[in-house]
Design goal:
It comes from Ruminococcus turbiniformis. This is HEAT repeat domain-containing protein. The protein is mostly helical. It folds into two domains: 94 residues, no CATH class; 93 residues, no CATH class. The termini are far apart. 26% of the residues are buried.
């Protein structure tokens, strides 16, 4: 196949053109021959159908994405499109916990990834951010109680103490200039 004889930049351009067409069969064929999806060609589409296509591609070919490339682009694209398989791979390979709050507030499949992470070795500040991320979701009560049961509210320093989230979350709401009537709903 001609793809095997192309330079890296040419292969990236071909893959970018294939992904721009949003044809899953064409993408299947391209990935079969290239065996790689470079992070530099990934971007978050502006519209919902593009995000759904990108989620399908990233979930289907999570093992073919080049994690050695640009991790930040991979994280941003995977989180914005809701590609839980790629996020799972990134969590395992990078141990990058700064994106956990977005995972906590994301789709159900994304939130389920948190339940496989042991919170014991994670810093209390990160745990508090994860709890605040869960509070931003539509099912905030359920997610918060699940995380509490799994130990996300326990302090790493003193296991008998609980992390205080109320003041931190109230401060975040004030920073976003949410009217007092909507803030009251979150504090219940």
């Amino acid at each position: 196949m001609i793809v095997n004889h192309m330079e890296d930049e040419e292969t990236k351009a071909v893959m970018q053109a294939v992904l721009a067409r949003r044809d899953i069969k064409l993408a299947d064929a391209a990935v079969r021959y290239t065996k790689c999806i470079p992070a530099q060609i990934l971007s978050v589409p502006d519209h919902l159908s593009g995000q759904q296509f990108m989620r399908e591609i990233l979930n289907r070919y999570a093992k073919y994405t080049d994690v050695e490339d640009d991790i930040k682009i991979l994280w941003q694209t995977a989180l914005a499109c809701g590609a839980e398989k790629l996020v799972s791979r990134l969590l395992k390979e990078t141990k990058d916990y700064q994106y956990l709050p977005e995972i906590a507030g994301g789709r159900e499949e994304m939130f389920a990834l948190l339940l496989h992470i042991r919170p014991g070795g994670i810093l209390d500040e990160v745990k508090a951010e994860v709890l605040c991320g869960a509070l931003r979701s539509g099912d905030w009560k359920g997610r918060f109680s699940i995380l509490t049961e799994k130990g996300w509210k326990k302090s790493s320093v003193n296991r008998r103490e609980e992390i205080r989230v109320a003041d931190r979350f109230a401060g975040k709401l004030e920073q976003k200039n949410i009217p007092p009537t909507e803030t009251a709903v979150w504090r219940r």
